[in-house]
């Protein structure tokens, strides 16, 4: 089931042509992921403070399908595809009125304070992917 997070396009999000600057879609999906994790009861600041682990983007495959423009109301959709011991794979879309404007597959990894791969704790894994555990 997809988690949905609404976003409005502000003037600062657009380029000289008046469309959303391509890099801002990455910001939009980052916000969607952060809110998805929060909605599942995972406090990333507490996770870092208590365990020294953080999530980091390892890979993004993105498709820019149609432009969004100033003042558009968008929805960022986040869907879990797979989860392993130290990796999370997500599908994310940015939509306007149900039409997909941007689509991405994102791989997150869990890292420790030294920047090395770290297993996601069983508690966090249960929260992120309850249907898989």
Automatic annotation (TrEMBL):
<dbReference type="InterPro" id="IPR050563">
    <property type="entry name" value="4-hydroxybenzoyl-CoA_TE"/>
</dbReference>
<dbReference type="InterPro" id="IPR014166">
    <property type="entry name" value="Tol-Pal_acyl-CoA_thioesterase"/>
</dbReference>
<dbReference type="InterPro" id="IPR029069">
    <property type="entry name" value="HotDog_dom_sf"/>
</dbReference>
<dbReference type="InterPro" id="IPR006683">
    <property type="entry name" value="Thioestr_dom"/>
</dbReference>
<keyword id="KW-0378">Hydrolase</keyword>
<protein>
    <submittedName>
        <fullName>Tol-pal system-associated acyl-CoA thioesterase</fullName>
    </submittedName>
</protein>
<dbReference type="Pfam" id="PF03061">
    <property type="entry name" value="4HBT"/>
</dbReference>
<feature type="domain" description="Thioesterase">
    <location>
        <begin position="18"/>
        <end position="101"/>
    </location>
</feature>
<comment type="similarity">
    <text>Belongs to the 4-hydroxybenzoyl-CoA thioesterase family.</text>
</comment>
<dbReference type="InterPro" id="IPR006684">
    <property type="entry name" value="YbgC/YbaW"/>
</dbReference>
């Amino acid at each position: 089931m997809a988690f949905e997070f609404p976003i409005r396009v502000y003037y600062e999000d657009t380029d000289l042509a008046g469309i959303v600057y391509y890099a801002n879609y990455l910001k939009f999906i980052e916000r969607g992921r952060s809110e998805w994790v929060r909605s599942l009861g995972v406090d990333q600041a507490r996770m870092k403070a208590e365990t020294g682990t953080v999530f980091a983007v390892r890979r993004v495959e993105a498709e820019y399908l149609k432009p969004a423009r100033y003042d558009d109301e968008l929805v960022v959709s986040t869907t879990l595809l797979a989860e392993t011991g130290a990796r999370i794979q997500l599908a994310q879309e940015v939509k306007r009125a149900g039409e997909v404007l941007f689509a991405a597959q994102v791989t997150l990894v869990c890292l420790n304070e030294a920047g090395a791969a770290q297993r996601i704790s069983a508690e966090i894994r249960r929260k992120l992917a309850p249907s898989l555990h």
